[in-house]
Design the sequence.
């Protein structure tokens, strides 16, 4: 029986899950692959702290070269995260003829082009199923299962932390900061949750999905990104009364010869499939010209769901090694002439409908002044809601608009907030209607 030797860099939460899976599912994996998947070396700066999983002391090392320069190791798993030294380790592994499996979405979003091209040059593979959607097999679905489709739209709930927070705010009406603290206590949020709550993590992931869907590399500064930290319970409540739910949505769309990529809180019809994705779950909704609409749903993070994705890559690469095949599915997309012509739309030039909540003095003329500014910027009002509030020094004024350009909306908001009678910062939520 052929033995595939594996080296693991990073003995953290996900690394521990990978080791547990290799141990507990050994017989299943052997039966399904006809090979022995043998973890031979684990590199980490801390090799003394117990992780609750038994490994032979001889497998542990603090020297990553024991993996990168070991000629017997076929597959290197990178699970340390971040940009460096992860990038250096991955490139060295590839140049040494080793296949790589990684969950590092941030690194792939910024340096995927270099990593994929290096792998192709050295005839080795990069598995990155765990980089998007945790245990959801969306990468393999898009690369293989949906390979016959030209995609037009990708919508994703791609961050479990923000989805948990928004679900709690929706169901309990609680303040963002209170729910965030609860998420930290439950382990859903990091001590520093900035990457999650400000939409950066979801941006990394939609960049990867954009590459898979359209064969185009997108940079972080080309993606309109807004997080959930400025959302208020009143806006989520009002959205619910209007028949919508608020989700942090990652969007990638092809419009003629342009690609539009953005991440922001979004009002979805309550009956939309994505609106029903609650808690820490993730989902990806994709539209192809042959298959029509599909949605993949599941645990978006966590030790074992992510380990499941890592093992799927290990098995896929191991089968390729056993067959003497690498790059069976190209990492660098061979694009058609029409795809080469695609451009990335400027980040503030997309069309959307808008929920606007102004805080205004309850006196004549304020509404007409706001409406006049919106009209000057080619923004049409679909409906207006004003609820009586006591005391009535300032009151919320809510509007839903028809489609408008983001840059027009931004300019209009800047002028409206300078109007006499507008007493607070405007709340803006884009809508997918």
Sequence:
């Amino acid at each position: 029986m052929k033995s595939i030797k594996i080296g693991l860099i990073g003995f953290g939460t996900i690394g521990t899950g990978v080791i547990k899976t290799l141990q507990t599912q050994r017989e299943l994996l052997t039966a399904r692959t006809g090979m022995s998947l043998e973890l031979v070396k684990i590199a980490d700066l801390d090799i003394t702290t117990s992780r609750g999983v038994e490994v032979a002391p001889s497998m542990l090392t603090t020297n990553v070269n024991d993996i990168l320069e070991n000629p017997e190791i076929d597959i290197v798993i990178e699970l340390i995260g971040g940009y460096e030294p992860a990038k250096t380790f991955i490139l060295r592994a590839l140049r040494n003829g080793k296949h790589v499996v990684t969950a590092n979405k941030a690194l792939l979003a910024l340096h995927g082009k270099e990593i994929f091209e290096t792998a192709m040059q050295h005839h080795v593979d990069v598995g990155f199923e765990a980089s998007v959607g945790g245990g959801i097999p969306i990468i393999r679905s898009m690369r293989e299962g949906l390979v016959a489709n030209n995609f037009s739209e990708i919508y994703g709930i791609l961050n479990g932390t923000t989805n948990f927070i928004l679900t709690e705010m929706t169901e309990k009406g609680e303040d963002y900061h209170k729910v965030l603290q609860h998420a930290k206590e439950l382990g859903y949020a990091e001590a520093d949750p900035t990457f999650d709550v400000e939409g950066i993590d979801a941006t990394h992931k939609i960049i990867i999905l954009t590459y898979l869907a359209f064969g185009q590399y997108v940079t972080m500064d080309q993606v309109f990104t807004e997080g959930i930290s400025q959302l208020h319970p009143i806006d989520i409540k009002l959205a619910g009364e209007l028949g919508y739910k608020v989700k942090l949505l990652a969007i990638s769309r092809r419009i003629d010869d342009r690609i539009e990529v953005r991440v922001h809180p979004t009002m979805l019809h309550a009956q939309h499939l994505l609106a029903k994705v609650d808690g820490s779950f993730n989902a990806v909704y994709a539209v192809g010209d042959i298959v029509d609409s599909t949605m993949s749903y599941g645990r978006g993070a966590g030790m074992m769901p992510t380990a499941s994705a890592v093992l799927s890559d290990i098995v896929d690469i191991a089968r390729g090694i056993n067959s003497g095949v690498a790059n069976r599915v190209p990492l660098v997309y061979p694009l058609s002439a029409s795809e080469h012509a695609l451009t990335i739309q400027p980040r503030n030039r997309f069309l959307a409908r808008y929920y606007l909540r102004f805080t205004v003095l309850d006196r004549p003329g304020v509404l007409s002044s706001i409406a006049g500014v919106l009209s000057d910027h080619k923004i049409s009002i679909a409906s207006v809601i004003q609820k009586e509030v006591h005391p009535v020094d300032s009151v919320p004024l809510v509007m839903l608009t028809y489609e408008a350009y983001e840059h027009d909306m931004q300019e209009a908001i800047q002028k409206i907030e300078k109007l006499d009678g507008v007493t607070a910062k405007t709340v803006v939520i884009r809508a997918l209607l």
